[in-house]
Each structure stands twice: as C-alpha cells, then as structure tokens.
Automatic annotation (TrEMBL), chain B:
Keywords: Iron
Name of the protein described by the UniProt record: FeoA domain-containing protein
One Pfam family named in its UniProt record: FeoA
SUPFAM superfamilies: C-terminal domain of transcriptional repressors
InterPro entries, A to Z: Fe-transptr_FeoA-like, FeoA_core_dom, Transcriptional_repressor_C
Stretches assigned to the Ferrous iron transporter FeoA-like domain: 1-72
Keyword Iron: yes
Length: 665, 77
C-alpha cells in the first residue's frame, strides 16, 4: 500500500476513556493531558511517529460512542473521517469492556476505510481472568488486523504500528454486519440511487445505512430523491441488529471468568453511598487542602533559604560590578523579590496537583458527578457540571474547556460562568501568605474557608442564573464510571510535571514581565525617576480606585495596583506586594513580619485581610482564562459582561465582609 | 417497574426506554436497548442510579432512570 516514504495518516478513534490519549502519548512522546473521565480530549491533537522509516502522522480524536451526529465530539470525529483526512483508522478499544466498545467498531467498519483494532488494557483483561480469542475476533470482523496492546505498560506498540503500515490485504468484501433481508434490500436500492447521483462516492454502503437512520448530516449534504423508500426511521432496527452481531462475536471470542465481588463494586459501596457519598467527598477535598498546606509549607522552608542566598549574592554581585543603583534595585527588589517570591510557593502547587492527579487517574472524579448530582440539581445543573468546577481548583483554563462535555449550550455557559469562582492554584499563594500573616493560629481553616466560599458563591450564582437563563433539562445525568485502578506513575508524573512546568514558565514570562512593568511604573513618574513612590505613575493610577475600594477595606493605592496587576496572573498579586512594599523573600517569616508591619502602619488588619482574600477569590479571572472563555463561548460581549459581573460580585462580597467584620470586631 | 424502583444488587431486563430522543440514542450507543440485562448497583432516594450494563458502569439521572421500564430477569417472557 505504501511505496517510498509517503506519510501515512492514522486516526485514533474510540470510546471516551478507552486509553486513546495514553496510547497516543506512548506513540508520539507528546505530553498531552490524560484524564480518567469522559470528555477530556476536546480538541484534535496531532503528533508524529515512524515505523521502519515510514513517517506516520497520528491524529487523536475526541472519544465517541457512536458515529451519529448528536454531540460536538461526534461531529468533529465524523468530519475528520468522512472528509478523507485519515488513511487508516486505529480503533482503540477498552478490551475489558469489549461488548460496548465493539458497537463503534461495527460502525467504523462500514466506512470503507482500513481499520486496525487496538485492544487496549489487555493487561486488565488478563488480571481479571478473562481471555479474548484474537484470531477468531479478527475473523469475525472481516479479517482486519487485531493488536493486543497496553498503553500503560507500553506493550504491543510495535505490533500495532506494523499492522498500521501493512493493513491486512486479504480483507473480505462482505459486510461485517448483515442486516435482515428487508433492510439489506433497502440498502442496495439506496446505493443504486446514490451511485447514479454522485459517482465520486466510494463508501456508498455507509451513506445508504445513514440514510436509513435518517442521519441529518448525510441527508443535507447528499440530497437524493427516495420517494417511498424510507417510510420510517430504521435506526432502532439497525442498532439492535448491530448488537445482535456483537453478542455473537462476544459469545465466540470472549472467555469470561469473573470471580467474586470486584474491588470497584466494593469501593463504590462506600464512595457512592447515598448518604455518606457527599461527606466522603468533602473529606477527601479537605485532605487534599490539608496536604497542600502542611506538606507544602514543610518543603517551602528550603526554597526560602535558597532565595535568600540568591538575593544576597545578586546584590553583592551588582555592587561588585559597580552597577548603577537603579539596575541593582530593578534586579534585586523587582525581579528577584517578585519572581523569586512566587517560586517559593511551588511546593504547595506541586502537592495540590499531585493530589488532583491521583483523584483523576484513580477513577474517582467521575463518581463525584454522581455524588454531587442532587446538590447540583437544586441549582438546575447536572452533576456532570461539577467536574469542570473541580478541575477549576487546579486551573481555570482547562476547566473552562472541560465544560464542553456538557450536552447543552445553556448549561455550558452557566458552568463557564461559575467555574472561575473555584479557587485556582494561582490564588493559593495569596491565601497562604495572607492567612499565615494575619491568622497564624488558624491559617489552614481560613484558607479552607475561602475554597468553601468560592464553592458557595458558584452554587448561588448557578441558582440565580437559572432564573435568568431559564430552566435547563431536568436531571439527565448520563456518565460512564470507569473502573478504579491504582494511579499510574507515568500518567500522574506527566500531569504534575506539566503543571509545574506551566507554573515555572509563567514565573519566567507573565510574572517576570509584570514585575518589571510594575517596578517601572513604581519608580517612574511624570517628572522622570522619582525618589518618593507617592509621586509615581503607579500611585496616580492606584489613587483613582481608592474611593471605590475604601468601603471594602482596601483603600490604599498600593492594594489597588496589586489587584490591577493581578489581572495578568493571580500570582502577580503576591509578587506585586513584594515590589510595592519593598519586601524581599515575602513568603519567609522575616518577609511576612516586614510586610505585616507596613500594612499595619495604615490600619490594615485581619478583617481587611479577609476582605482582600475574598476580593481576590471572586474578581475577574486572569487574562489567559478570560481569553479561553471568549474562545469557548464565542461571544465577546458575553465575556466582557461576565468579567464586569465578577468584579462587581467581588466588590460586593468584600464590602459585605469588611463592613460586617468591622462591626463585630 | 421503573429502573429506580429496582433493588440494589439485582439484575433486570430492559423492557422499554421512554426518554428524550437524543438520550435514547445515547443509551442505545451505550448498549442500553430493549431486552438488555442490567444490574442495579446503587441508587439514591432522588432517583439517580448506577447500573452495570454490558460490562460498563453508568450513572443515570432521575429523568432517565424513570423512563427505563424494567422486568425481573426470571419473569421475563
């Protein structure tokens, strides 16, 4: 089939959660995100690999259950296949759930594109004492190549590539699913009409079957006159006849020896318990934050020592080379204080993402949709909408993208609206710093309370927006619950490393630039360099906002400037404090007491600090998140409206906290 | 009886699926069709259920579980 070194384009197609993305990564070495709940591959990904010198372009498609046209994922995948964008389909199957996965296979085989079967998770099949007769399976599917692989253990990959490069040439021409004579008769009649109508169609059986299923896409793209040929929708009959065929295949090819109660069933008895489910979930989240703060803080000390050393060393170096005062100040008080200060929070971020990766890879995440379904139902959203919110604890950007898995446009927008209220990891440094400074004895409780406030505000706004945007569909949760598994070291490793890398590159780019810009507006004024920061540009900008922020207890121009610069990335709020108040190593005990003194000098106390944290929790997400929201909703006006709304909510909540707090204390 | 009226741990046969078209199709693609055996794994008072069907676990909301009519596996004709 392949002569010379012409590139082969291979499309990876399969059900959600069958390990497509893991397999894709194993092949291309790409570090794509792998998650253990449906809907995570929302965009098509491409990568390159090769076999015996033949370049192979691998395309990862979103997980789908069927080749109909009802969801975004199905449309993306179908377009890719129907438009001839792939030469070979690698149909990835979760071999441990063969019966359900074969439904898509039977549809793919009708497309008339060479198909290679990749039976993934073959190790799990073996672990469970099951056996699949591969030659028989290949035979019953018309002689296509079948490869047993394990993306986790990286086994069987060579065999799969070899099958891709040399798809079985002796494939029989007879259809894999022979429908009843009534349907076959109609198929052949429609084929004749299609052929006379458009000679370029090469997979007319596929089109004919889709016509019988009343497939909208085909009917509008290839209109033909069928008169009374399709008097009804034959979709149900076609589906059930496909499943009849699957049953025959399963009977002949699968030897099942499932013994005893499986671990998943046992674990689910507790984790999805009708009453205990919610407390267990809240307990797990509390544990995640407890670990984030305690273990993270333990590791933090070493980072601070290193930062102090670098700071002192750089200052001496600058003096040593006789650098001018302002450059020394820019490097040491600007860049090292700002960027370095942010880096000391890395241990906390690391632990948070490690815990989230464990939850995702173990299979627990999808259960949360079931557990939270009733609570979300009260505010008119399905439990499935809780998954993007949960991801929001990590970063708002992927969380907003994950909302695509929701079936209706309205629910997607509502979920996108509330996801930014979930405290992303960038807000963590703000909480760590301010709760430890102002509430040293209850720092953990204060920080956890902010996570809960974010969650409650999100739920309250979902409730309010239900009235505004109308009721959604009633409880139509439908989600697949994967089997629990021990988290895979590599998957968790990639996930966490990705996040740490993101954080480091953000420190090196956005935060770095924001810090430099801030240093300049702080040290420059209308008359050039200023010696008194009160005359700087920063002070001028900040002062205009002071009257608005005063009722929230945030009436200082430096706080206003920190909040504005936080729009570039929320971590910048903390680095800005370093620069604005001239505090080096802000996260250390000395740095904190230094900043505490400066803040205290204008009466900033615990109530102000809590109002400040509430404001940071709720106000507009960072630029990257706003851009993602614009892209996902496709509406600039909606996005701007959302940002203004969130700033307003933040201001209102902060005012409320400050005014009530000041009355009580 | 309706799916959510079943007993936890018992296996039933799907008798009919009467939910919105798009959801029917989704269920069909997942293998929840008439005469399919399903096992009720867990349920909540609200009608949200977890079922095991064709080797897969699915969580279904009330609106769906109410629309699935089931029969006991033994008494199926």
């Amino acid at each position: 089939m392949n002569d010379g070194n012409q590139e082969i384009r291979v499309g990876f197609v399969g059900n959600p959660n069958c390990g497509k993305t893991t397999l894709f990564n194993a092949f291309t070495g790409a570090r794509l995100k792998v998650a253990n709940w449906p809907g995570v591959t929302v965009e098509r990904m491409e990568g390159m690999t090769s076999y015996k010198g033949i370049p192979i372009r691998v395309i990862d498609t979103p997980g789908i259950y069927s080749l109909s046209c009802y969801t975004l994922e199905e449309k993306v995948t179908r377009k890719c296949l129907e438009d001839g964008e792939v030469d070979v389909i690698v149909n990835v199957l979760d071999a441990s759930s063969l019966e359900r996965n074969l439904y898509l296979t039977l549809q793919l085989l009708e497309l008339n594109i060479p198909v290679v079967l990749a039976l993934n998770m073959i190790d799990i099949v073996e672990e469970r004492g099951m056996e699949i007769n591969l030659p028989k399976l290949s035979d019953m599917l018309g002689g296509i190549s079948v490869a047993a692989v394990s993306a986790r253990n990286r086994s069987g990959l060579k065999e799969l590539l070899s099958a891709v490069v040399n798809p079985n040439k002796s494939i029989r021409k007879i259809p894999v699913v022979a429908y009843t004579p009534k349907i076959e008769n109609k198929i052949s009649k429609i084929q004749t009409i299609l052929k006379s109508n458009d000679k370029s169609l090469d997979n007319i059986r596929w089109y004919a079957i889709k016509y019988l299923e009343h497939d909208e896409k085909i009917m509008t793209e290839h209109p033909i006159q069928l008169d009374h040929m399709i008097d009804q929708n034959y979709e149900k009959e076609i589906i059930s006849q496909k499943y009849n065929r699957i049953e025959e295949i399963i009977k002949a090819c699968l030897v099942k020896k499932e013994q005893g109660v499986q671990r998943t069933d046992a674990a689910d008895r507790f984790l999805t318990h009708p009453i205990l489910g919610v407390p267990i979930f809240l307990g797990i989240m509390a544990l995640v934050f407890f670990l984030t703060f305690t273990v993270g803080d333990f590791l933090k000390g070493y980072f601070e020592i290193a930062l102090d050393y670098v700071s002192v060393f750089m200052r001496q170096l600058m003096i040593g080379i006789h650098a001018s005062g302002w450059i020394t100040s820019l490097v040491v008080d600007g860049i090292i204080a700002g960027v370095g200060g942010i880096l000391t929070f890395l241990p906390n971020i690391f632990i948070l993402f490690l815990a989230l990766a464990f939850l995702e890879d173990s299979g627990y995440m999808a259960r949360v949709a079931y557990v939270m379904n009733e609570i979300m139902g009260r505010v008119g959203l399905s439990g499935k909408a809780f998954l993007p919110m949960l991801l929001g604890f990590g970063c708002t950007v992927p969380a907003v993208m994950a909302a695509r898995a929701l079936p209706s446009e309205r629910d997607r927008k509502r979920t996108i609206l509330i996801t930014p209220f979930m405290s992303c990891s960038a807000r963590l440094p703000i909480y760590v710093l301010f709760s430890e400074m102002f509430f040293p004895d209850h720092a953990l409780m204060v920080a956890y309370s902010l996570y809960l406030v974010g969650l409650l505000v999100a739920i309250a706004i979902a409730f309010g927006s239900r009235r505004l945007l109308g009721r959604g569909e009633e409880d139509v949760l439908l989600i697949e619950l994967p089997e629990y598994k021990a988290p895979n070291g590599k998957t968790v490793g990639i996930y966490v490393w990705d996040k740490v890398k993101d954080y480091l590159s953000k420190a090196g780019t956005t935060i770095f630039l924001a810090t430099i810009v801030l240093w300049f507006v702080l040290n420059g004024g209308p008359s050039g360099f200023v010696t008194d920061v009160e005359n700087s540009f920063a002070a001028m900008i900040g002062r205009t906002l002071v009257p608005v922020l005063r009722p929230a207890g945030l009436g200082d121009w430096r706080i206003a400037v920190a909040l504005i610069s936080g729009l570039s990335a929320k971590e910048v709020v903390v680095s800005s404090f370093s620069v604005l108040f001239g505090v080096n190593n802000i996260n250390s005990a000395a740095g904190m007491s230094n900043l505490l003194g400066s803040l205290g000098s204008f009466g900033f106390n615990g109530v102000n600090a809590y109002a400040f944290m509430i404001f940071c929790l709720l106000y507009s997400p960072c630029i990257a998140a706003v851009a993602t929201i614009k892209k996902e909703t496709g509406s600039l006006s909606w996005t701007i409206g959302m940002v203004l709304f969130q700033i307003f909510i933040a201001w209102g909540a902060a005012v409320l906290v400050f005014q009530i707090g000041s009355l009580i204390l | 009886m309706k799916l959510h009226e079943g007993e936890i741990g018992k296996t039933y046969i799907v008798y009919s699926v009467m939910v919105k078209d798009a959801i029917t199709r989704r269920l069909e693609a997942l293998g929840v069709t008439e005469l399919t055996p399903i096992t009720l794994m867990n349920k909540k008072g609200s009608g949200t259920v977890i079922i095991k069907v064709r080797g897969t676990r699915l969580a279904l909301g009330r609106k769906i579980s109410e629309g699935i009519e089931i029969r006991e596996a033994a008494s199926h004709e």
